[in-house]
Amino acid sequence: MDTAYLSTPHAVRSSDAKPLVCVRHVSKQFANGTLAVRDVNLHLGAGEFVSLLGPSGCGKSTLLRMIAGLGAPSTGTIEWPTTSHDASGEPERDLGFVFQDPTLMPWATALANVMMPLTLKGVRKSEAQGRAAEMLALVGLKGFEKSYPRELSGGMRMRVSIARGLVLRPKILLMDEPFAALDEITRHRLNDDLLELWWKEKFTAVFVTHSVFESVYLSKRIVVMAARPGRVMADLDVDAPYPRDDLFRTSPEYAHLCRVVSGKLKEAIGS
């Protein structure tokens, strides 16, 4: 069976005519001297599902936060070629962010939590309520609009967080290990639901994970990173078609793909 991947070591693709985000020679060194990320190059195209895969300490979350504008590179640039810029030259990043912890306001209902980005944008209350309710329905939580976080399971709280990240209909959704703390059954279900949302909403997804199995199941591309300092070791195309389901999870093709990615990850860890 032919390999289903194309490796491009620096994760820059000439086929991306108009990428949404261009990460160019980005490094990040913290005040304590730790070099978290070194010379990362990465292009993110419209409609892609890209996983950042690697061991703890390889800079995946640091890179994600810099793309979101939650931290600045020490060297290099992060460009948004198709995005308008404000008066100071800063890009108006059209993105949503889903953290590893749902980070919901405990005193607010699910509906109010999802409404928050709309409220901050100045959307009138009636419209915000309607859009938030629609997004909760899309993530499978119709009927739970008035529930508080303490009344929801871990998986349901994460669904609320995803709904909040998507309520502004962003071009890019950044996800920092959102399912890491969930049990395997819930994680599989949310993987399926996330893919369905991505297919319907047509956003670009950037997904941080430690899991080879999760990355292969979800992604069009897997960017494998090595640690100390964090750097890109391989950029792999996952050629399996969508939609993907339990038949794909148990197929010889999926097992083969997981073996290939596991091999690349071992190379990265040993480098």
Explain the layout of strands and helices.
Elements lengths: L20 E9 L5 E10 L4 E5 L6 H9 L6 E5 L15 E4 L11 H11 L4 H14 L15 H13 L5 E5 L7 H18 L2 E6 L2 H7 L2 E6 L4 E7 L8 H4 L2 H19 L1
Helix pairs in contact: 2-3, 2-4, 3-4, 6-8
Pfam families: ABC_tran (PF00005)
Keywords: ATP-binding, Nucleotide-binding, Transport
GO molecular function, one term: ATP binding
What is the overall silhouette? globular
At the first level of CATH, the class of the largest domain is Alpha Beta
Order of helices and strands: EEEHEEHHHEHEHEEHH
Number of discrete domains: 2
What is CATH's topology name of the largest domain?
Rossmann fold
Question: Largest sheet at a glance?
Answer: 6 strands, mixed
Count of DSSP strands: 9
H/I helix tally: 8
Q: Flag low-confidence runs.
A: 1-16
Structural class call reads alpha/beta
Helix content: 25-40%
Keywords: ATP-binding, Nucleotide-binding, Transport
Family: Belongs to the ABC transporter superfamily.
Organism: Bosea vaviloviae
InterPro entries: AAA+_ATPase, ABC_transporter-like_ATP-bd, ABC_transporter-like_CS, ABC_transporter_ATP-bind, P-loop_NTPase
What does this structure look like?
- One of its GO terms (molecular function) is ATP binding.
- It comes from Bosea vaviloviae.
- Keywords: ATP-binding, Nucleotide-binding, Transport.
- The longest helix has 19 residues, at 252-270.
- The strands form two sheets. The chain has a six-stranded mixed beta sheet, sandwiched between helices. A three-stranded antiparallel beta sheet has the order 2-1-4, with helices on one face.
- Residues 1-16 have low confidence and may be disordered.
- Strand 8 (221-226) and strand 9 (231-237) form a beta hairpin.
- The protein starts with 20 loop residues before the first strand and ends with a helix.
- With 271 residues, it is of the alpha/beta class.
- It contains eight helices and nine strands.
- The chain folds into two domains: 21-94 and 170-270, 3-Layer(aba) Sandwich (Rossmann fold), CATH 3.40.50; 104-169, no CATH class.
- Helix 2 (110-120) crosses helix 3 (125-138), helix 2 packs parallel to helix 4 (154-166) and helix 3 (125-138) crosses helix 4.
- The radius of gyration is 19 Å and the shape is globular.
- The protein is 35% helix and 21% strand.
